[in-house]
Amino acid sequence: MEQTKIMPNNLLRDFEQYQKEFEDAALLALRSGWYILGEQLCSFEEQFAAYNHAKYCVGLASGLDALWIAFRVLGIGEGDEVIVQANTYIASVMGITINGAVPVFVEPDDYYGIDADRIEEKITGRTKAVLAVHLYGIPCQMDKIVDICNRHKLALVEDCAQSHGASFHGQMTGTFGDVGCFSFYPTKNLGAFGDGGAVLVGSDELDARFRIFRNYGSEEHYKNIIVGANSRLDEIQAGMLKVKLKHLDEITAKRQMIAKRYDEGITNPKFMLPKVRTGCSGVYHQYVIRAEDKEQRESLIEYLDERGIGTIIHYPIPPHLAEAYRYLGYRGGDFPITEHYADTVLSIPMYNGYTEEEQRYVIKALNEF
User: By C-alpha distance, which of 3, 5, 54, 351 is closest to 206?
Assistant: First the structure.
């Protein structure tokens, strides 16, 4: 098999853009002699909160931790229901079920987010929250979702693992609800060099509860007031993230330019291109096209692979059909829009350091398919 010339993602290119700054930040943290809950984390939390116009940021060990701890801190547990889109990555659903709560799935809209017009029909007496996932870096319809949650007195959690820097009508994702959950996995737009995560919150009470929970349930050493977790963003990752946060607007602008060239350059009518609502800013964690059907997608993957172009399917198995959630009792056909997306979506190359020449080659190949 020919070695891929153009990868769907290239983390080395990302590192090389700011290599000296990253290396200096890592050495600064290493030479400090303090590696957990230190100055680097504190300053990153302040900077990330300020960037998003949020009151507080609390650094955690991963994006999944941000999700499951969010529901735990909000008091959502056994038998409670959380409404979530069916086409998300399984980690979103795990954040719910780790706490014993039940995911109630809703079909996505044309922008891959939860269809706000389908939420209210799923609300029952057991519904406690809505989880809005800004999939692929495209904001959900937050005005309608906030209104529904306010009217029905539901908690609102945002999964912003793919939407660092995205906004809905001028407001940053992660600041609409009770908790905004972020992942800093290396492939993310604001990616670390290992696992990492954070939450944004707007209340003093939630900020304190997250800080206590992440550190074994203690606010003071050896005085454990609750059963918490060990979930802390370490000093080295926080320092590296500070470097990348400084460049995030630049990184976002480059991704938006790549997306614009795709939008204008891909003319093959066989593919459906992604779109963003008017007044919203998408950050294109992925650039996802849709084929006509599963067979055409398989042919397209093979065709691009032969030309040295790598692709990824995000995501081939919807959570409701995953073996892990067989106990929920869903079958194929229960969520036809979600299942159609799973059979037809394809992520084409999108990363920092992707050259215009490489992109022209990819666009040409797509148009000739």
Answer: 54
CB neighbours of 115 closer than 8 A, spacing ≥ 6? 85, 106, 107, 108, 109
Region 339-348 average pLDDT:
98
Q: Exposed (0-12), middle (13-18) or buried (19+): which is 268, by Cβ within 10 Å? A: middle
Enumerate helices (H) and strands (E) in the chain, giving the number of each. Answer: 12, 14
Both tokens of residue 266?
């891909």
Q: Are 251 and 285 in contact (CB under 8 A)?
A: no
Query: Strand 179-183 vs strand 155-159: parallel, antiparallel, or unpaired?
Result: parallel
Give the tens place of pLDDT for each residue, 143-157: 999 999 999 999 999
CATH number of the structural domain spanning residue 330: 3.90.1150.10
User: For residue 178, what are its two tokens?
Assistant: 């009770």
pLDDT of residue 2: 44
CATH code for position 210: 3.40.640.10
- Across the range 236-262, mean pLDDT stands at 98
The dihedral of CA 105, 107, 113, 116: what is its sign?
negative
CB 242 within 8 A of CB 44: yes
Determine the 3-state secondary structure of 50 from DSSP.
Answer: helix
The residue range of the domain holding 318 is: 248-368
Q: Of the residues 246, 274, 308, which one is the last residue of a structural domain?
A: 246
Give the pLDDT band of residue 267 (cuts 50, 70, 90).
very high
Q: Do 260 and 191 have their domain in common?
A: no
Residue 4's pLDDT is 60
101 φ/ψ angles, rounded to the nearest 5 degrees: -80, 165
Note whether 198 and 124 are same-domain residues.
Answer: yes
How far apart are the C-alpha atoms of 326 and 329, rounded to whole Å? 6
pTM of the model: 0.97
Q: In the chain, how many domains are there?
A: 2
Question: Which of 27, 4, 41 minimizes the C-alpha distance to 211?
Answer: 41
